[in-house]
Design brief:
It contains no helices and 15 strands. By secondary structure, the protein is mainly β. The chain has a 15-stranded parallel β-sheet that branches. The termini are far apart. The mean pLDDT is 95.
């Protein structure tokens, strides 16, 4: 399914294999909304809803565009890759069975939670006005020198290494629950 320049107003948008949103708008309305496909690619446009779940049973890739919701949950059976664009919500959750990688783009929320085997932050920003939580369930958290974590409270947990290497971080409190 490809959405290029059109607008879809529907609570649930489901595709069998691949969903590509390159320059369109999806509005799931004021209640619970769902975008679902095996692979989802957002390169432009906007996905908007109140309580919005973006579910990729395999991979989710965002290189542009915006996800905007009160509660935005992006789930992937394998990987989440954010190389551009923005996820903007009061509560933003990015959950992947394998890796969450932010190599550009921005997560902007009151509360931001990233959970995956490994979390790789190379370039971009997580801007959380209250709390950001990073959990690597079976690996490490790795931050590059040009990434920016901007939050008063950062909670981190990993079975492997935790490497917060950026000089651009703006943190007041860092809570380390577990570090391999």
């Amino acid at each position: 399914m490809a959405l290029n320049g059109a607008t879809v107003n529907a609570a649930n948008v489901i595709a069998g294999t691949t969903m590509t949103i390159s320059d369109g708008n999806v509005n799931t309305g004021d209640s619970t909304g769902l975008l679902q496909a095996a692979n989802i690619s957002l390169t432009g446009g906007q996905v908007k809803g109140a309580t919005l779940t973006v579910l990729a049973t395999q991979d989710y890739a965002q290189s542009g565009g915006t996800i905007e919701a009160t509660t935005a949950t992006v789930e992937a059976g394998q990987n989440i890759s954010l190389t551009g664009g923005k996820v903007q919500a009061t509560t933003a959750n990015l959950n992947a069975n394998d890796d969450v990688t932010i190599a550009g783009g921005e997560v902007q929320a009151t509360t931001a939670t990233l959970t995956a085997d490994n979390i790789v932050l190379t370039n971009g920003t997580i801007l959380a006005s209250e709390t950001a939580s990073l959990t690597a369930t079976n690996g490490s958290i790795s931050e590059g020198t040009t990434f920016a974590l901007e939050t008063p409270v950062l909670n981190v947990s990993a079975t492997g290494d935790i490497n917060l290497a950026s000089r651009y971080n703006q943190l007041e409190q860092v809570n380390i629950d577990n570090a391999g």
